[in-house]
Design brief:
heterodimer; A: 118 residues; mainly beta; 6-stranded mixed sheet; 5-stranded antiparallel sheet; 11 strands; B: 114 residues; 7-stranded mixed sheet
Chain lengths: 118, 114
C-alpha cells in the first residue's frame, strides 16, 4: 500500500520567514495530494491540494509543488504569521474505481509541528 | 452550510466495554470516512462508506466496525475496548464521486479507555 514520509517533524521560524515542508510517497498510482492544517482541539482543515496532472499550485501565501518522477511534493508558506502555527499534514490518495465514480483513502504523513515566533 | 459534526466529543470507557461514535456529514455528501489519530501512529484510515455500503477498509481488527444510514449519517463501533484504542476518532465527508473530492473533517471524538 501507499506510504507517505514527511519532514521535518518540527519546524520553528520567525514571523515573516518562509516555511517549507516536504513529503515523499511510494505508490506511483497516487493522483491527489492534499495538505491539511490541524489546530489544537480541531479536526484537520484542507489548506491546499494538487492533482497529479499539475506541477505547482499557489493560493496567496501558500504554494504546493509536485514532482511525479521523484514522487515528492512540498508545501511552501511565505511571510509566515503566528496564526500559521499548527500541525501540518500531507496526504496522498490512490485512485480506485472505474467508470463514473472513483474513490480513495487518505494516507497521511506523520505531521509537522510548525511554530511561528512573533 | 453546516460542517461535519461528531458526537459525543469526549468519551471515557473501561477495557472490555464497547462504544458507538456518530458522524453527520455535510449536507449532500454521500461518502463518510473514519480515521484514528494517535500520537504514535498518526492518522490512520479505518473505513469508508458510500451510499450505505462499505467501499474501502483499512488494516484494523474486526472489533472496529461501522455503518451508514440512508441519510448518509454514519456510526462506528468498537467492541471489547483495549487501552490502545484510546485516540481521537475523526470522520470526514465528501461527495464521494471522485478520489480527488475534498474530504472535510469533523472535530473528532476523543476516546479514553481506562
Amino acid at each position: 500500500g501507499e506510504n507517505v514520509e514527511q519532514h521535518p517533524s518540527t519546524l520553528s521560524v520567525q514571523e515573516g520567514d518562509s516555511a517549507v515542508i516536504k513529503c515523499t510517497y511510494s505508490d506511483s498510482a497516487s493522483n491527489y495530494f492534499p495538505w491539511y492544517k490541524q489546530e489544537l482541539g480541531k479536526g484537520p482543515q484542507l489548506i491546499i491540494d494538487i492533482r497529479s496532472n499539475v506541477g505547482e499550485k499557489k493560493d496567496q501565501r501558500i504554494a504546493v509543488t509536485l514532482n511525479k518522477t521523484a514522487k515528492h511534493f512540498s508545501l511552501h508558506i511565505t511571510e509566515t504569521q503566528p496564526e500559521d502555527s499548527a500541525v501540518y499534514f500531507c496526504a496522498a490518495v490512490t485512485h480506485r474505481g472505474a467508470g463514473g465514480t472513483s474513490y480513495g483513502k487518505l494516507t497521511f504523513g506523520q505531521g509537522t509541528i510548525l511554530t511561528v515566533h512573533p | 452550510k453546516a460542517g461535519v459534526t461528531q458526537t459525543p466529543r469526549y468519551l471515557i470507557k473501561t477495557r472490555g466495554q464497547q462504544v458507538t461514535l456518530s458522524c453527520s456529514p455535510i449536507s449532500g455528501h454521500r461518502s463518510v470516512s473514519w480515521y484514528q489519530q494517535t500520537p504514535g501512529q498518526g492518522l490512520q484510515f479505518l473505513f469508508e462508506y458510500f451510499s450505505e455500503t462499505q467501499r474501502n477498509k483499512g488494516n484494523f481488527p474486526g472489533r472496529f466496525s461501522g455503518r451508514q444510514f440512508s441519510n448518509s449519517r454514519s456510526e462506528m463501533n468498537v467492541s471489547t475496548l483495549e487501552l490502545g484504542d484510546s485516540a481521537l476518532y475523526l470522520c470526514a465527508s465528501s461527495r464521494g464521486r471522485k478520489s480527488s473530492d475534498t474530504q472535510y473533517f469533523g472535530p473528532g471524538t476523543r476516546l479514553t479507555v481506562l
